[in-house]
Amino acid sequence: MGKYIVKRVILAIFTIWLVATITFFLMFLVPGGPFLAEKSPSPATLEALNKKYGLDQPVIVQYKNYMMNFLKGDLGVSIKQRGRTVGDIISDGFKVSARIGGIAILVSVLIGIPLGCIAALNRGKWIDSVIMVIATFGIAVPGFVVATLLLIFFSLKLNLLPTYGLSSWRHYIMPVISLSFYPTAYISRLMRTSMLDVLGQDYMRTARAKGLSQFKMLFKHALRNAILPVVTYLGPMVAYTLTGSLVVEKIFTIPGLGKEFIDSITGRDYTMIMGTTIFLATLVIIMNLLVDIAYKIIDPRIKFK
Amino acid sequence: MINKKNPLSLQLDVSDFLPAEKEEKQSLVVMREGVSFWRDGMRRFRQNKVAMVSLVVIILVCIFAFVGPAVYPYGYEQQIRGSENLAPMEYSATELERMAAGEKVFPHILGTDSLGRDLTARLMMGSRISLLVGLVAAILVLLIGSIYGAIAGYFGGRVDTIMMRIVDIIYTVPDLLIIILLMVTLKYPLQDLANNVPGFEWINNVGIGLISIFIVFTLLYWVGMARIVRGQILSLKEQEYVTAARALGASHRRIIRKHLLVNCMGPLIVTTTLQIPSAIFTESFLSFIGIGVQAPMPSLGSMASNALNGITTYPYRLFEPAILISLIILSFNLLGDGLRDAFDPKLKE
Fold first, then answer.
1. Is the pTM of this model over 0.80?
2. B317 neighbors B300 (Cβ within 8 angstroms)
3. CA gap B338, B347 in Å, rounded
4. How far off is chain B from A189, nearest CA to CA, in Å?
């Protein structure tokens, strides 16, 4: 167990380093620096600006400097948003994104799991078909379609919900629905399959033969085993929610991390690109790592390789 | 039996003892015709109504996307003056005049956009892009993933460890972040290549956005396929026929191609089919946030994104690409599910 965790952690650190390095050198492949978009600065100003941010040095030296600072936990200052450090911008944006993303993940788990169970327990009946049809559609409809359709109906036609910002709970409804739409559908399908699998197991027959109550059978025996695939999906789901937030934040004009990421790339804000990419990548990698380890703890049948 | 006079007698019916006829003999033969893997799978696939319907839908969308633009009178780039912002089936003033003069004017079935471009034509082109991205990405993933996975699984040992470790690393990299970065960075070198190096002018014809989408998908998406193929090969290579082939002096290359890959055709087909919708999904997402296919080339994602500007007045402009993209992804998903039920022997009852 310990050996496995150490191995995975080393792999994770290596991956994070790799992502950081790839991002760093990719950035410098792009012609045009962060200052070109502004009202064509004079060569002297440009030189001074480059010098200020250390952009006049060779790429390798810049890479070394960046990595040394990064190890100290310093992500530098944003080139475009004067006077703000990358760390500040990320933590501000992340607070917003994490709140929406967290609620969305919670909602999809809380709706997806019961839906999948209900479908599995009523296999072949109309309720099963209805849930599965909805879930199949849910997987096929891209998040931006859901978000824009919601926007049209609830804000523009019915005038029920606000279109942008995050000042009250009503602002959260549409972003959360658009973010949790796909994961909910996915989880309910996953849950149905694994529940059906578990219900056919021998130990379920034994439980019934012992005369266990329906409730105990379902919650103690079936659900605990059937929920495992959903646990493994949590890692990818975090990644999905992150990317989904890129779109959702654009549509509902929410000042989250996804918006910062896109803005930094289009604006060639080197330090921000590095900061957000490393941050998001680390988040996803750590989530995957935790899920993998949790999975092996929950299910002792899985051997450690 | 009918002629029997006494119900209790053992009187026998002579007709029961006549020699059997040919047809009767045939009907008693228990042996069925041999069923190959393919025919068995195809039979099951054909019985799956949902999968067949989605196949028909896919074929219809393909006709719409690949034949449509050739037949349709308006081009996707063509800006018709005076016909801006037309509602579906509406005619502009000049077009009405021309019609009054007895000329035949083809209607703008789905209306036009703010630049006077026919939306049906753009929708056709957009779905062509989506389908192209899906199909090409799936084929590239199939090629790279299956060869990589087969080599890793077949040779095993240290080769396998190193190759799969690389896969593990790529697998944990958050793909969309890297895709977005690559999309932005690849644009310039590709532009350079297309404009300055002879022999690469075709890049401009296909579109830089599309090329970089292909490159990016092939760089990152093959790992899932490689894992599946490796898993299959690991169990297949212990089979007797592989030993037999090796004993007969077959080369590694031949064993992998003729014996191993052929035998994991089922999972290969299923994974490839399910790769198509996910590639289409990603492409529409990239185009929606504005870094996918570049204007004036339409994509279903960028059409939806453009529609956001006039969403209160022209909501149908959003519905058209949104419905089409959902339909395409849905049918490919259902087709893939159907193929999996038909061809993946593990799920066979």
1. no
2. no
3. 12
4. 12
